[in-house]
């Protein structure tokens, strides 16, 4: 101890039984709290627990614990009575050995937490001692717990188990004490060297975004997660992490794990490097005195550090901090410590809860016993807390938040504690508000980027189903855990469940089934999000019914897949669910439903972002609807311009291939037709209207219907085309010139076919003979829609058995690849290779040749009409 003056001492001996470890912890805690050394209580209890465990469990002897108080700190000595042990050689350096050895974990923690420590050996005893120094502060008791009747002391299951786990810099388990083995069923040698993440069942503390790997890298972390036990169960734990470094600078993380309803906290005073004389004279920052240095640079870290320091400062069991909303009418829970869980994060309470100072967050308040005023502090309902002190956080007279501490015993706090807490709140209010504004600015920038990206994605599609999918994928998991989109076809239709998405794909089917069984939300056009309780209530009923049915049938412990799905779905919809209307062009066209899992709530910033997204999504969805309706109308009209089908002509094969250019077009400027005129006579036509699109399609309809009408009136081919020419010119400014090949066909008794054709400005038809020769089957004549007076004539062509007549539009002959064009000669060369092929095979070969000629998609309409007179069967 050197020259330090011992001002008090306390000693006790503990028998070599398991319960002695908990008794020793209580002895040290009570002793140090009675001395007013609450700053070092937690570290002392952790170290004592490990050293006493080594003595009574590993060495199997009684443990002597001696606490010595000095003006600067406390020294704790733990001795056992095991004489036979190996004394380490000083020259070999310290070797902590295996985590299972008695000199392993305790010495690791001593090196991490204590200011000084050592080991002393005698022939009959081993002393392990550690020194914990107090930070500079006025002499006196800092805090002390009141004397409580035994009936009011916290209840534990048997003895309190504190699992101590040491994690090295790589995330591997370096130490695993007996309590960890008891709680989780894994022996130390089974987990040593393995990653802690292999045993952690996340999700972590609800409402936070820190993963376990990230949490192990933080200098200090406190929260909840689950540990997978050896038998497959998941044990919820409350964890306290402290990141330390040894004398060689090697970092590691010490983790205290207890059952989720218990608390064990690691604390270690900041050991600042020795400063020069100039720094010693520097004025002390009141903020750093309270919050510690260095201060966290993020809002969540600052708030968590604040509640932890507030709890420690007034020896509280719990602490909480709330931030005011922009309108200062509500307070939002942003950080808690010591409460059963963090499920209250982002929950909201009113600023003015009632009359008088006890009902307003704008004034300090002391509640000696919450049972006398139920609901006075909504956040603490059903938490077991009795005494509460709350103080406001104010910046320039404006309420920015509220800080509170609570204890399980009544009557713990008075106005004196309220003044101390208010002093601390005043020190950190400006820093908290600055960090909050910084977070809001980052959120706004992130929201703007999110909305810009969402607008780009939604504007990039006019497909209704793709728009629905994009809406869901942009909200999950960025804004919500799950979402559902309801659509309304028209004012007389009920909302229809169109799309469901959950961040866990395995839950989508169960969620969809649950939502399908409940009535959809009312299509209210009022802007903003509104709470929808139906999914949560339906999930609760389904889970209760399933559990009751399982008990009635004496179900085995292992649940069926259906039961697990129902329970998982109920958990998924157990939190807050909100509905946002999808309003476009002053009409509700659907609803966007967002949901959270059990006991989780939406932040106001998220709801405002979701509302902005819903407005953009509604317009995109309505645009997709209008586009789909117009496309359906257009395609219906276009289909009416196509021939109903090809007639069966005796002894003549006919095949047509038609391709309209442009997205969504079924009919363009090219057209074809084959139709019966009278008994034994058939008309055929293939044409090309100048241009593409609706205007060309209108002339297409005129030409096709006029040809049928005039031909069936008995007019010959030239007269039919001359009258069609007049009809086109009558259209005036809307008229389009037209190239047209029109013909009439008569099958002959000898197996041939007689054709009379008129080629009005159209690519000439090609005749393929059996010997492979290809020749034009007509002469060119003037096109239609240009001249008033046309003098056209028809030409006769006889197709012998095996001959083919090929008619195409200029989309075939003018197919281009750079400066090359297929042309009439290229088409003739392809046709010459089609000898012996059926009409369908000829048309297919021509199409393949056109498509292969160029890599780019066709930019012009194409029509291919092939007629073939088959050869008589050979006998």
Automatic annotation (TrEMBL):
CDD domains: HATPase_RsbW-like (cd16936), PAS (cd00130). Residues 164-200 form the PAS domain. Signal peptide: none annotated. It comes from the Bacteria. InterPro entries: Bact_Sigma-Reg, GAF, GAF-like_dom_sf, HATPase_C_sf, HATPase_dom, PAS, PAS-like_dom_sf, PAS_fold. The keyword Hydrolase applies. It holds the Pfam family PAS. NCBIfam families: sensory_box. This is SpoIIE family protein phosphatase. It comes from Streptomyces stephensoniae.
